Structures are given as structure tokens and as C-alpha cells.
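Write out this protein's structure.
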Amino acid sequence: MSPNFVKLNLVGDVQPNRAVPETLFRHVAPLLQDGDINVCQLEATFSNLGTLGGQVRNPAHRVPPENIRALTAAPFHGVTYAGNNQLDYGVEAFNDTMDLLLKEDIFIVGAGRSLTEATSAIVREVNGIKIAFVNTCSILPPGVEATDSRSGISPLPVKTYYDSLEKIEEQPGTPARTVTVVDRDRLNVILNEIKKAKESADFVVASFHWGVHFTHDLAQYQADVGYAAIDAGADIVAGTHPHCLQAVEMYKGKPIFYSLGNFAFEQPGDIAMKGASSYLRLYGIPADMSVPGHPHPAHCRPSVIVKLVLSSEGSISFDLVPTYLNEACEPEPALPGTIGYQKVRDLIVNLSADIGTTVIEEDGVLRVLPNAGGDEDTRDILRLRNISYPSLRYLSTELT
């Protein structure tokens, strides 16, 4: 008997906000429409309800409900929804969005009306193959986490410490290494959910909203958590939140996509630009003024579609298809020979090589060599780096 297959497409951060939402994914529709399951990280609430929280720096993450038509047109079948902006307008807008997604038969993982619901895996079956999705978030403004009695997201708290590289008595103001430590109790809850999901599913996709925004560098805890997820039974680890691409690696033969970047992110108007500028200036990074409605830096425009094929025999294969955000805030396929393609290729190849992973280009897509990773342990690499996040090492030439 020949094996069955499931085509799974994963992309990064998505926020539609336009008069005709169905047009957002028109350039990449052929790349998505072959997918049995397409999943994105939704960065917005689809609602007219709620009140803006007082701590919110960028108030542009609530969009009119009709923007859900961008997802249905693509189509996306599910969203990871454990994110830091989902409660910007309170529980009312959050619940309204979840109701709308479910009404459109779009599954939600990482969020719910209780902590148990937000933490629980979602399982989908296609062609007799069961795929479980688990999602959690380490970017935690006050009040976003679900509780036993309150809607919210699945939290994974992380503590940050700064370790001076020299004796501060001899060198006041010396640079510091940034040490990040995940909450072990909560991580164990997530790992147990992965283990439980693996008992009944053929494949487990573990998604994490993590890392430092606008930097290609990895925070120390990302590798710690990614490795632990695979040790617990995850077959694929996918990251979001940094808004730009980060490295890819293989651990025990399983892929970790540390950040998929901004796939389609639009926030038209001056309010979003002012909000984003308030924290971009902290990193010395200018917003990209050449793309109205995209209040993020230019290095956030490259992205990828991870096109996975999962077989009933247990095998996983995948390609990384480069995409690039155009001047209309729409993702386009980045074709070989274009600047967009070169940027995606160079980023993925160089960032991954930094942690010992070899990525090659072949037939217009990027592929990770089967033996990629070797004896490299990214956890050790990050612990030994004498840098403070974000170091912005890969942006230095772009900003000068």
C-alpha cells in the first residue's frame, strides 16, 4: 500500500487591514492553495469591540471584522494565536475574534476562554494522518495570559538577567551578556501537552511566540525551549514574534524554524508608525518609510513559506519558498535573480550557518541538508556568545 501525505504550509506574522481584504494574498495564492492545512500567526483582533489598554504602545492591532476575509480567501485553515497583542483591546475584542474565527471554521491554538483551553493541543486529520498543534507565548504584557476564569493566551514566562563580562568594580559600564531563563514549571506543562499530543497524533507542530523583536539574533532561551519541545515529541518547531527571519536548524532530524518573519503585515496610518517608532528608536533602527502601512524596518520584509510534506510512514520533507513584502504590503513570491530572493537566501543561509546548519538553494527554493546540524549544539553556542540582545550584527551594513 502506498503512503498517504499531508501538505502543511506554515507562515509567520499576519495582520490584514485593507478595504478589499481578499486581495492581500493574491500573489502567493497559488503557493497556498495546494495546502491541505495552512497556518499563520494572527497578529490582530478582528473586532469593533473593546477598549484600548493603558499599557499598549501600538494601538493598531485591532482591525475591522471584515478583514477575516483575507484569511478565508487565502485560504488559512488555522491560526496560532498566543501573541502579545491579542488582549490590546481587552477580553471583549479577544472573544469576539475567536468567535468569528470559529464561525469561519478556522481553528485556533494557543488561546482560549480558560488556561486549559489555551494550553490544549488542537488536532486535525487529513488523509488518515493526524497532526497536533501546540502554541504558547513568552512575550507577556500584564493581563494577556489566560487563567482558570479568564480568556487569554497560553503563557510561557521567561526571566532575564544581565551578567557583566568584566568585573564591574574595575570597568563600570562594561557590556553584559543577556541570560534568559524559562519558567521550568510552566515549560513542563507545555512539554507534557506535547507528549500527550504525540500519543494520539502522528505529528506534533509546536509553535512559540518568542525572541526579541526586530533582531535576527536568537535569545538564549529559544534554543533551550526548541530542543526541549523536540525531546518531548514535537516533530516541527516554528517561531514567530521577531517580525524578521531567524535561523533554521535540524535537531535530532527535526526542523526548528526560529522565526518565520512578517508574512503579511499592514497597519496603515500615522498612529501605527508613531507607536512602532516609540520602541524602534530603542534599538537605533529606522522604520521603512518606503512601504506605507508597514511600520517596521526594511529588514522585516523578507519572509518564507515553509512547505512541508508529512507522510503516513512518518517522514517529513520541506522546502522554504522565499517571499517578499511589496510596496502594497502584500507578500509576493521572491523569484531567483531578484533582490528580494537574494535577501531571503542570504539571511537564511548565513543565519543558519552561524549555528552549524547548511542551507542550499535548489530550483528556486531553499533546502536544509539532511545531515544539517551535525554535532553543533545551539544552546552552547548562545551561552558562549558575549553579546547583549539584540546585537543587530546582521543589520550593521544595512544601517550604514
